[in-house]
Amino acid sequence: MSNKELAVVTISEATNNLLKEQLKEILQDRVKVKGYQINEIGSNTINSDLVLATNSLQGEIDNYITGVDDIIFARRSLDFSSLEMLIKLPDGKEVLLVNNTEMAAYETKSMLEKVGIDHINLQPFYPEKKLNKEIDLAITPGEKGYVPDTVEDIIDIGSRVLSLTTIIEALIKLDLLDEKADLLVTKHIKQLVKLSNRLYGNTKKVERINQMLEAVINHVHDGVIYINQQEEIEIFNQKAEEIFEMKAKEAVGAKVEEKISNTKLNSILKTEDKHLNDLQDIVEKKIVTSRVPVKLDNEVIGALATFKDVTEVKKLEKNLRRKLKDKGHIAKYEFSNIVGNSTQINQTIKKAKDLAESESTILIQGESGTGKELFAQSIHNYSNREKQPFVAVNCAALPENLLESELFGYEEGAFTGAKKGGRPGVFEQAHTGTIFLDEVGDIPLKIQTNLLRVLQEEEVMRIGGTKVIPINIRVIAATNKNLRKLVKEGKFREDLYYRLSVLPLKVPALRKRKEDIPLLIEFFLQKFNAGDLVFSERVKSRLYNYNWPGNIRELENCIEYISQTCNERVEIGDLPSHFHDEDNILRKSIEDIDCEIEDIKSELEELGDIKEYLFILNELHLAKQEGRNIGRREIAKNAKINNLHLSSHMVRSRLRKLESCRLVNIGQGRQGTKITEKGIEFLERTT
Ligand SMILES: Nc1ncnc2c1ncn2[C@@H]1O[C@H](COP(=O)(O)OP(=O)(O)OP(=O)(O)O)[C@@H](O)[C@H]1O
C-alpha cells in the first residue's frame, strides 16, 4: 500500500461506497482510499493528502474539516449505459427527477440536458419538495427511496460516477496521471465515444469529447486512432502524430485509408473481429497494433486502434544481443570463489547457502561492487537448479521499451533478422533455471506492474503475442538502493517489494570487513600477474584505511592500475590521487601512524644518516618550545658544536626532504622553519 491517502467525503453511505469503489478500481493499491460520511466526521481530523467531496458539500465542508488544503469537489457523470431508455421516452413527457438534495436534483437535470436528454420535461424533486401534481414516472440516479409512493414507474439510471475530469484532477494532484493514463483511456474512451456518437449523431464530432479526455489520450504512450462508421478518423493522439508523421489536424475528419494505408482499421468495422498485438509494417516502421470494434446495442459504431512503435527497440536490440552473447547464460562463480575470511563474509556465505536451498525469491542488498552478482551466481550453483540456465539482466542499463522486450520477449517477425518463432525474453530463457534481476530498484513503474504479474502468475506473454507461456523460474533480485525508501516515495510498488524480498540477504561493504582487504589484494595481484610487487607499509596502511566507496570492484581496479604502472615497489605516491583525499580516508588508527612513521624512517635512512634529520627536528622542536625562531645557519652552528657536520646548505636540503614528509613547514624569510605536530610525533617515536 502506498503512503498516499485520499479521503472521500459524502453525505450518504451509498454514494461513499460507490465513489470509493470507482476510485479503488483506478488507483488500485497506489493510494489508500478512505471514506467518511460528513455527519460522522465530528471531531475526527482528516490527515489525508487529498480530500474529494461531493459537490453538494461545497460551502459546508469547511465546518467539518480543517487543515486540509487540497479539496476537490467531485463532478459526477451518468452511467452512460442507462441513457438509451431515456432517449426512447416520448417528447414532452413530464417526469420527476428525484435526488437526495435539491442541488443534486438540479445538477442531474442539467447533466441530462447537456448530454441531449432535452426532449422530456424534467421536474426536479428532493426530500423537502412538495408534489403538487400527479406524475407517473420518476427518473433517479440511485435514490429510489426518495421517489413519492404515488409514482408508478421508476427508471433508475444508476448512481452517478465520478466524471473523467474529476478523476484526472485527482490523479494530477496525486502525481499519478502519467502512470494511470493508459488505464483510464481504455476504460473511458469507448463509453465516451459511444455516447458522443449516439447522442450527437455524426454532425458533431470529436469536439464533443471534452478537453480532458484529449489530455488523457495524449498521455498514453501508444498511438491511438478512432474511426467512426464512415471510416473517418475522429481521434488521433500525439503519439499517433509521431508514429505516422502527420498532424492530427490533417488526419481528423479524413477517411482512414486515404491518410494511412494498411491500418486495417476499416476492415474491423466489417468483420467486427478483435485483433490484438499484431505486428505490421506501417510507414516503413515496425508497429505492434491492437484493433477493436466499438459497439452500441450490438451495432458497430466505430473502431479503435492502438499502435506501439518498435523500430527503435529493434536497433537497440541488436547491440544488446551482442552483449548478451558475450555474457552467456551460465553462472561462473561458486561460493568457494568468494575471497575473504572475515566473520561478516563468512556469515553472509552461510546465510546464502541456507537460502539457496529454498525455492523462494531472494533479494540481495548491498552497496555497489560488494559482490552481489557473485553471490547470485554462487547461490544458483549451490541450488538444485545448478545445471539449468542462469540469466542475468541489468534493469538499470536498458531504456524502458528495450527492458520490456528484454524481459518479456517479442513474437516472430518483430525484428528484422529475428529468429523464426520470435525471440524469447529472459524469463523464457531462464525457464527451469534462475533469473537474476540486477539493479531491480531501477525498473520503471510500468514494467514493475508486468513484472509483478509474471511473478504472481508464473507465466509470460511476449510483446506482439497472444499466448501465455508458463514459466518455472527462481528469481534472485539485487539492488544497491533502499527499496523501502523507494516504496515510501511511490517509486517502487509495495506489493512487488514484498514479493521480491521474501528472503533478504545483505552483503556487507568492504569497509565493514577490513580483514578481507589484504586477502583480496593478494588475490587480485595474482589475477593481474603482479604477485611480486612489494607494497610499502604506508601503501598497505592507506589501502587498509581507505573507505572503499566502490567496494571490491574499486579495489580490483586499483590493483589492476598498480600492476600496470608500478615495478617492484609500490610507494604512497603511486596510488591514484583520490587515495590522498582526506575525505576518503577513515580516521587514522594508531597502527596507521606507526606504519607511516616506519615508512618515513626507512625513507630517511635510505637517504643517509638519519641522525642528521633527527638533529634538525630536535633543534626545531626546542625552538618551538622556547617560542623562538631558528634559521638554518643557527642549526648548522649548533650541529658543529655537537660534532655533527652539517653545512647550512646541507641543512636546507634536509629541511626540504623533511617538508616533503610533512614533518616541517618552511616559512618565508624571517619567519623561519617550524616543526609540525607530525614532526613532533615522529621525533618522539623515533628517539
Ligand atoms: N568476495 C569477493 N571475492 C572475489 N572477487 C569479488 C568478491 N566480491 C566481488 N568480487 C569481484 O568484484 C567485482 C564486483 O562484483 P559484483 O559485480 O558481483 O558486485 P555487485 O555488488 O553486483 O555490483 P553492482 O551493484 O555495481 O552491480 C566483480 O569483478 C567480482 O568478481
UniProtKB/TrEMBL annotation:
It comes from the Bacteria. The keyword Ribosomal protein does not apply. CDD domains: AAA. Residues 338-564 form the Sigma-54 factor interaction domain. The keyword Translocase does not apply. GO terms for molecular function: ATP binding; DNA binding. InterPro entries: AAA+_ATPase, AAA_lid_NorR, P-loop_NTPase, PAS, PAS-like_dom_sf, PAS_fold, RNase_R_HTH_12, Sigma_54_int. It holds the Pfam family WHD_RNase_R. SUPFAM superfamilies: P-loop containing nucleoside triphosphate hydrolases, PYP-like sensor domain (PAS domain), Winged helix' DNA-binding domain. GO terms for biological process: regulation of DNA-templated transcription. Keywords: ATP-binding, DNA-binding, Nucleotide-binding, Transcription, Transcription regulation. PANTHER family: C4-DICARBOXYLATE TRANSPORT TRANSCRIPTIONAL REGULATORY PROTEIN DCTD, TRANSCRIPTIONAL REGULATORY PROTEIN. This is Putative sigma54 specific transcriptional regulator.
